[in-house]
Amino acid sequence: MSPTRTPSEEEIALAESLWSLFGLFKGITQRAAHTVELGSPERARLLYGLKAGACRAGFLAQQAKISPSTITEVVEDLVADGLVRREADPEDRRAVRVALTGEGRRHLQRFEHAAAIALADSLRVLSPAQRQHIKVAFADLREALGDPDVMSSSQPEANLLPTTRTHKEATHAR
């Protein structure tokens, strides 16, 4: 389907600027995933998708925009690495959910910290005022776009804070 109008030069420039950021962020996430030995940004993204709680693999695949066969392979690898576990779905006895393990939460936290450091290092050349302007601009952008991505948080700062472990995870980690 073709657009119903022609974008202005300003709209094209803004779109090109935003699209170019995706490549920059991809590089940062690749470096962070490599630093914490997660293997790939995709694995980190799937762990991040489980941060809020267990969910079915099909939902994860849909949110990550990957095929069901790919999600099955990735989940199997993450289970083998001890980063996620399969558990019964309390709403449907026939279904299985995927949940982070304590080790998975630790890897996710290390990834988030590595990504924050990589981004901070990249933005070090900017003044504090420039960084604040970027933060405000991204908040405005999330609000304007409606932040429809379930795998992102409406409170990005909270994602970088240490997560609390359940009693069972804390006991298992000892």
Structural features:
174 residues, three-stranded antiparallel beta sheet
Helix coverage percent of residues? 55-70%
Strand order of the largest sheet: 1-3-2
Topology order in helix (H) and strand (E) letters: HHEHHEEHHH
Gyration radius from CA atoms, angstroms: 19 Å
Q: Report the portion of residues in β strands.
A: 5-15%
Largest sheet: 3 strands, antiparallel
Q: Pick out the low-confidence regions.
A: 149-174
Q: Shape from CA axes?
A: globular
- The average pLDDT is 83
Q: How would you explain this protein's 3D organization?
A:
The chain has 174 residues and is mainly alpha-helical. The chain has seven helices and three strands; from the N terminus they run ααβααββααα. The chain has helices at residues 9-35, 41-49, 57-64, 68-80, 102-123, 128-145, 167-173; strands at 55-56, 84-89, 92-100. The protein has a three-stranded antiparallel sheet with strand order 1-3-2. A hairpin with a 2-residue loop joins strand 2 and strand 3 (92-100). Helix 1 (9-35) crosses helix 5 and helix 3 packs across helix 4 (68-80). The longest helix has 27 residues, at 9-35. The model is unreliable at 149-174 (pLDDT under 50).
